[in-house]
UniProtKB/TrEMBL annotation:
Domain of life per record: Bacteria
Pfam families registered for this protein in UniProt: TonB_C
Organism from which the protein derives: Zoogloea dura
Family the UniProt entry places it in: Belongs to the TonB family.
The protein, known as: Energy transducer TonB
Example of a GO MF term: energy transducer activity
PROSITE patterns assigned to the protein according to its UniProt record, in alphabetical order: TONB_CTD (PS52015)
Subcellular localization: Cell inner membrane
Keyword Transmembrane helix tagged: yes
One cellular component (GO) term of this entry: plasma membrane protein complex
Residue ranges of the TM segments: 7-30
Xref: SUPFAM superfamilies: TolA/TonB C-terminal domain (SSF74653)
GO biological process: protein transport; transmembrane transport
Amino acid sequence: MGKTARYALEWGVGLSLGLHALLLTVHFVMPDASHFKLRDRGLDVVLVNSRHAQRPDKADLLAQSNLDGGGTGEKGDKLATPLPPQDSSQAGTGLVEAQRRSEQAETPQMQAMTTARSKASIASDTRQTNPVDTPRQASGYDLLDSSAAVARIEAQIDKDLVDYAARPRKKFIGARTEEYRFAQYVEDWRQKIERVGNLNYPPAARGKLYGSLLLSISIRADGNVKHVEIQRSSGNKILDDAAVRIVQLSSPFPSFPDAIRKDTDEIVITRTWKFTNADVVRTENTE
């Protein structure tokens, strides 16, 4: 082998060894996952159990479906405190009966919400305090399913509480003593009812029938009648129907003044109606 060829071979071997030594100093590591951690704060989404075809103009919360809830609540809070109980210490028996039925209708719903909340809390506490009691370690899918179930229950409870707080603010009027701001409105209501009633006294009852009944009338803030309910019948369908018809003929009543409208959406007036043997209609406070 010539000198030139040997010289080239030595340079080639030396260069190869140098490159291999350089490659041995190079290290590859996995990238730090924390650098790719998402910094999105997330979205607050609730689950609703109904939907509307029309999308609301201004949504208070995000949900899986469009839902225009309406209501009269002043704030669009997710959670709300149920309304305080009405003071019935001065109410008559007719008013107390109306309030009692209203509370009985609400009690099953509130009990159901309380039970669901308790079950959700117990399920969550059991997973946290007794992990050893489970026969096997829960998988990620199991935890996700359980968390989703709890979230659905709590979302429904929150919706029920919001609906509860958004109910119309009612004032029950049936006792002898009433707040001054309601007294004038009720007096105007009485005068109109009796005037219309005497002008439209039932012909079938003139000189023949007389009696009394207990009637509750729900009036909205705009003066329109929302509901009429006979709390105690007169025992005669002609007189009962005549009382309801007189209310319908008298409607609408005056709108609520500002002093009432500021904290009241609905007034429930409970009165004893008397059809006398003189063919006159009178309304009186409940005893």
